[in-house]
Amino acid sequence: MCLSQGNRANPCVTSRAKSCTECIRVNKDCSFCTDENFKQSRCDFRENLVRYGCSKHNIVFMQKETLTLKEFRIDTSLKRTQVTPQQMSVKLRAGEEANFQMDVFEPLESPLDLYILMDFSYSMSDDLDNLKKMGQQLAKFLRELTDNYTIGFGKFVDKVSAPQTDMRPERLREPWSNADPPFSFKNVIRLTHNIDDFSKELMTERISGNLDAPEGGFDAILQAAVCKDIGWREDSTHLLVFSTESAFHYEADGANVLAGILRRNDEQCHLNVAGTYTFDTKQDYPSVPTLVRLLGQRNIIPIFAVTNHSYDYYEKLHKYFPISEIGRLQEDSSNIVELIRTAFERIRSKMDIRADYTPKALKTEITSMKYEKTETGSFQVVRGEVGTFDVRVKAHEHVGDIPVCDLPEKDRKGFIHLKPSSFSNKLEIDASVICDACPCEQQTELTSARCDFHGDFVCGQCVCHLGWQGDMCNCSTSSSTDNAACIRPGEEEPCSGRGLCLCGKCQCYSEHLTQQFEGTYCEYDNLQCPRTSGFLCNDRGRCYLGQCMCESGWQGPGCECPTSNETCLSNNGMICNGRGNCQCGRCICENPNLYVGPTCEVSYSLGFQLACENIRSCVQCKAWRTGEKKGKNCTGCPFDIKKVDELQKDGDINTICSFQDEEDDCIYHFTEENPSTGGNRTVLVQNKKECPARSFLWLIPLLILLMLLLGLLLLLCWKFCACCRACLALLPCCARGRTVGFKEDHYLLRQSLMSSDHLDTPMVCTGNLKGGDAVHWKINNNVHKQGFSSLALNPKDMITYGLSLRLARLFTQNLAKPDSREHQQLQKEVEENLNEIYRTIPGAHKFKQTRFRLQPNSGKRQDHTIVDTVLTAPRSSKNDIVKVTEKHVSQEAFNDLKVAPGYYTVISDQDAHGMVEFQEGVDLVDVRVPLFIRDDDDDEKQLQVEATDVPVGTARIGRRLVNITIIKEQAKSIISFLEPAYSYSRFDKLAKIPVGREILENGKSQITLRTRDHTAQEGKDYIFTESDLIFLPGEKRKEIQVPLLELTEIDAFLNNRQQKQFIVDLIDPKFGAKTGKYSQTIVTIDDPEAVDGIASMTGLGQLPVSPRSRLGAPLNPNAQALNSRKIRFNWLPPPGKVAGYKVKYWIQGDPESEAHLLDSKVPSAELTNLYPYCDYEMQSCAYTAMDEGPYSEVVHCRTLEEVPSEPGRLAFNVVSSTVTQLSWAEPAETNGLITAYEVTYGLVNEENRKHRF
């Protein structure tokens, strides 16, 4: 029996299927052997059954079937939409999928039906007057599009009932002067080709009116869609222009205080002979999903022409439709023709292909290698050409927790309609899941002689009658007394006391649904295997016969160990950083006291600091005869001291311990010599301490005396001088009435229009400007996320800190040029002094990426030089960095580097702190706040800047907060490398790498490129390159050049065969640009090979490099709702070396293009901030440094229920002196199934007497 196939568990064998039908339903790869002489497990993989001797004609295996039933070729000469094939049949086993292609043709010119649906409330009277004058303009516009057109007109107001309409008789006759009686919807002009009749009929129309602001347009849209009287034609493009300046009523708004809550909309046509809607007071408004579905089924594309008053409502609404457009209507509708023209041009390049009536057991996906998808899920197509789309139909294995074959037949089979938008033609697929019984089960031999007349012979095996056992049903369970064969050697009780001995075989008990006993003598149970973190077999395998059967990629007694060493790889590509061994996916470090990181990297924030602290007192005692061990002959100090003039640092990392001696306030420095070697330890101590300047203690009493005298003088002035406040205001230090604060309280930024990653936010000073002030400020990122905090992040993570200071020197243009001598000299001076100051920060690296600039609107020092630089340090060091920065800014010096006071900025990965200065007479300065722009930002994110306090000066803070909203918009262009990898020879001297741009909306685009090391080294194999690529309007391609360096003599001499690669990244897109499929590329440097002393020229030129092997899709994806807003998504790693996983998830029913993306380094992810009681779909894929594999199958999961929001639109109807009718709308957020409502009522002035029902 084969329990595993390669590295994967064998689901066929472990299922213990007892019949053929049960077997083939286990897995799409399972087969059943009907050979009666076959002795192995009959349910197994097909190749295993053949290997164990089952002949192929005795193997039952259900195969999928895909047939084309009707296929007429597309004729591009016809001016009508066409689809091929037209009919297909697909039969699949659970878990199987079928792939085929569908061709679609949309001609350059096709028939067009345009129906204008206009709001006729009184506020639209000027719009109607303008529309009456535009009849010929509309005709000219339609003739430009096609000769085959029709145009129609409808009008709407609202339901003729309270509270929507004034029900007084005089208002029902004429709501306004010279106005028609109120109505809900009326089809005024049926779709017609006669534009003269259209114009003549339109001239007779008059406006009407209603009470509340929202209108009943949804009723009108539904009737215009479902009623045949409108005149929609079969093979034409259907456009519905919806014109209004008001919001809309929707489902559950139909509460009538006289008639109660209306019944749900029946989605049927209810127009009388005059074309008037008659069911407005009998049924509710339709819902948004209803309109989306009905308009899609009838190929109607809506265009919302709305004014500024209601634009925000309809901007959100139109996104629910796969294809729709929205335009901003002028107050008098004078631009409606131009608006329709613009919207139609956008629509004609889009196509949405829907899969209607898909059974629950199946899933349909439509993709295209040729056409890109928009954010709403539609395709960008080209009219006049035949488009090819890839169709994938897949059968689920389970729907929820139910196997697909246990579903009702209507959920397993049906006709799927694949229909493009605006098409009447469609592809009809007769799809079903194969759940038929095995054919051999239809040929059962009842009470067969082969089964000793005690059983039925079915599919090559005996199925025994009740009371009989054995392969041939020749053993009676009631008369069998031979227990010897059931007793395990060394035991006395049959079947280990866990089963019954029947016919010489143990029939093991099952304690309950989860625990089962198994084995020849029932000696094992399926819960006795090792557990890891409380999970049986680490949830990565199955317990069988007392051992864990691990899934692919896992090993160990409890499946606790990954088979690969990937989790032990450090940043330099070495296993455990070369300082330990990888055991069970974890590094066992050689020196755990020092190398305590997960991959044996030096932990300077913990291990190194702990090592310094442990020997601190001994160093004090032995080197300086001070400290807590002074006078004790330095007992317990097992190392020698060696004094040196200067301590050497270990590269960019701080390896020197520094402490202050309490006896003289001097700082001493030391380090351990070769800490990783054995033998006698030696500590190197720097000869000279760093002591503060000599203090002038004699000044202290004098200063105290002067301060007392000044305080007494001010007290007397306050006590006896009536004008003391005015006098004090004349002093620079005591100016009164001065207020500092932000100029604005909110900024709205569109990311596509941003040209930088910061915002200069003005801060103003009002009142008496005599004297100066310094103001502390801070900014927090992602304040819109509830519960978001950087405290939840790992404090040991190394992050980059941005540091900005104002230098005490004027700015020159040469400082803006990185290649100038002046820039390089000042850069060296800045970095050397800052490195000296910040070396006390544990784990801090050296400063890099130093640049210089001016800061406009910064007061009297705005011509001084601003330096921006970057420091890498642990996340936990943020507060220390801010304190050190503020201390030295107040001292106006960082060692020998002079800085101006009152200005600094420290930027971490999620927040920033800083200070700005108001000099005397300055009333405005700019605060340069970072915006933390990242690719994974939400579509709309919030940042908050706060002025926290005034450490210098007497001003008070006025406007303390400013909120910044950043909105992502649809990309105007997509910039990407053309290939994921390239190869160049050193003989080329330049790596010329092409970069392409796909233009979605013509204009300027910009992106930054930057190289970084992989196996090649900057300065040795290539020259570091960083520059901005600017695409002018119309430009689609650029070329970047990275200089390659010649092979060094030592590498050539040693015949270095290591493959040299470096990476080029595309970062920081601007002006509406986004990175595309390849945002990074790997460049391989082919070294010339020597043949008889002559360098070979092979490998020259540019050759795209593809990965050696692609990863497969993650296995066995599953999801579980943890609460109302969180889902855990798990999967098994695919075979191969995986660098990480990408997870995308979206609300079921939404287009996949709106999916959220996550990155995970482990085969699981928690999806947070979800909607309660909402169905989500999710899938994952694995990736490496070179490529990413295919996505797993889609998994469905629903979040748990949560408390609903409050009911809305409470309405009363006084029926009598003792009876009041109360009605309300369903909560806007039900967050689950509403089971009941609780109503509390009481007298207005009687707080303690309330009743409930």
Brief overview, please?
The chain has 1253 residues and is α+β, with helices and mostly antiparallel strands. Mean pLDDT is 81; it is low at 4-8, 255-260, 721-735 and 1089-1109.
The termini sit apart by 66 Å
Residues in helices, as a percent range? 10-25%
Q: Give a short account of the largest sheet.
A: 10 strands, mixed
Low-confidence stretches: 4-8, 255-260, 721-735, 1089-1109
**Residues in β-strands, percent:** 25-35%
Mean pLDDT: 81
Overall body shape: globular
Helix count, DSSP H or I runs of 4 or more residues: 18
**How many extended strands?**
82
Give me the Rg, rounded: 39 Å
Structural class by secondary-structure content: alpha+beta
Protein name: Integrin beta-4
Keywords: Integrin
Descriptive overview:
With 1253 residues, the chain is an alpha+beta fold. The protein is 14% helix and 35% strand. It has 18 helices and 82 strands. It is globular.
